[in-house]
Amino acid sequence: MSSPSSPPSSSGDKAATHLGSLQDVKQLGLVAAISSLSYVFWIVGGMEMVERLAYYGVKTLATLYAKDPVSKGGLGVTMTDFGTVLTCWALTQSLLPVFTGGLSDRFGYKKTIALSTAIKILGYLTMAMLPSYGGFFLGAIILAAGTAVFKPGIQGTLVKSTTRENSSMAWGIFYQTVNIGGFIGPLVAGYFRKLEWRYVFLANAAAISLNFLLLLMYTEPGKKEREAELARRKASGEQKSLWTESLAELMQAHVLLYLAIFSGFWFMFNSIFDIMTAHMEDWVDTREIVQTFFGTGGTDSVFAKFFIVMNKAGTEIQPEGMININGMWIMTLCFAFAWISGKMRAITSMVIGTLFAALSLVLAGATTTGWLCVAGISIFSIGEMLSSPKFSEYIGNFAPDDKKGMYLGFSQIPLAIGWTLEGFVGPRLYDHFASKDRFARELLEQKGLLDHAAAAAIPQGEAFDRAVALLHTEKWALTRELYAAHNPGVLWYFMGAVGVVSAIGIWWYGTWVAKRARAAAQTTV
């Protein structure tokens, strides 16, 4: 078999090389794997941590910002309208890396990381300075473009600074380090949004600028070899158009199928941030969780309110605090699950993880009980740790040595498909099955308290509070009444079913690849 860095002598050899790279390699032990990681790996993990801190400081709260009425500083739009933003955000962020991934390979990881950081700062500042639906839309697109340029350079560096023998642990620790940022981001954003929404975006612009300092310590791995290979290809006339080269690699069957099948996982994953936060804000009663730790009166502790992300009264946990349970588990346990998944076949780990995630959505989404929601998010975290890092490791391993950034750009395609579909479908399904605002308007009409015109005239996001006032009831009593009447949890059975279908597809792909690899090996003997 030819080396990954040398061009195969024929299309048959090329297929054999790629398919052979899909086979699992025995991993180093826990201590040996961790000690083998270079300083470049840790620097790049730090840059990704900072980027995710800022990104999830916005992503986790974006739905809440959209739903919040204008009178409270939010956008005051329906979930359907916000779904349009999510769809365009997803398409921009997920499809651009298919082509910008090659830019990292061609022009260098360090330059593209610096460029992307500047673009992302501009996106956050746009959201802060233009507090409107159009302003947030524009800011989201700019932020998406910056993220698209950022990802291939970071992940390409990771692949170049690791080996096949320590890759499971490397991706697991990288994912864990990233989630330190993913955990801190919502804490900071949750604090600032209680002051004023624009402070959320300004804080994240300041946070990501720290990556310029880390870039001063960053040394690009394989830079001399990359420049020498580019010079050789230019001199020999082998250099192709970046688009042509990307499409040629992308059209290989084992690449296309892998990317298509894993889209289901990303559909589920993004529903956690895009509509689960709305479900928690509207339907999940977290008072019992607070009472378990602090008693019936809640807490006045500033420390507890910050780290648990509680409301000003200290009696309830805000949705971003509940979602942050996911980041907490991954931040603390991902290295252990990386070791566990390293003992499994890659496909097995991804199948089990996807099934766990599917189960969790049904458990967390189809309930108003705070502790059951905590259990669901925790199970989702286990599924994510078993599947998501393994996906990136898998595609990074079978990528040709001189196209790591390109292939890791391809890894955004399942995110493009899954997130775009979820961004379009999820909020619309939420409006249909679970809109608390709409249910409250309908109830006011049914009770004869308002006519249709008066109910429709209530500003978006304020109907439930109006219903509580006019019905002279308590908000959680009315919440339970509306939940019993409309059963919003039906939505999450659909989300879970997507995960089950995806898991079946991943299992089939593993079987198919194993057969092709054996056939390719026989033809090259």
Structural commentary:
It is a single chain. By secondary structure, the chain is an all-alpha fold. The chain has 2 domains: 11-224 and 243-434 and 489-524, Up-down Bundle (Growth Hormone, Chain: A), CATH 1.20.1250; 438-486, no CATH class. It has helices at residues 11-21, 30-35, 39-67, 79-95, 97-107, 109-129, 133-160, 167-193, 197-208, 211-215, 223-236, 242-250, 253-261, 263-283, 287-294, 302-308, 319-342, 346-365, 370-398, 404-410, 412-434, 436-446, 452-456, 463-471, 475-486, 490-524. α1 (11-21) packs across α26 and α4 (79-95) packs antiparallel against α21. The relative contact order is 0.15.
Ordered list of secondary-structure elements with their pairings:
Blueprint (H helix, E strand, L loop, with lengths): L10 H11 L8 H6 L3 H29 L11 H17 L1 H11 L1 H21 L3 H28 L6 H27 L3 H12 L2 H5 L7 H14 L5 H9 L2 H9 L1 H21 L3 H8 L7 H7 L10 H24 L3 H20 L4 H29 L5 H7 L1 H23 L1 H11 L5 H5 L6 H9 L3 H12 L3 H35 L1
What's a concise summary of this model?
This protein is mostly helical and 525 residues long.
Q: What structural category arises from helix and sheet content?
A: mainly alpha
CATH superfamily of the largest domain: MFS general substrate transporter like domains
Report the CATH architecture of the largest domain. Answer: Up-down Bundle
Distance between the termini: 9 Å
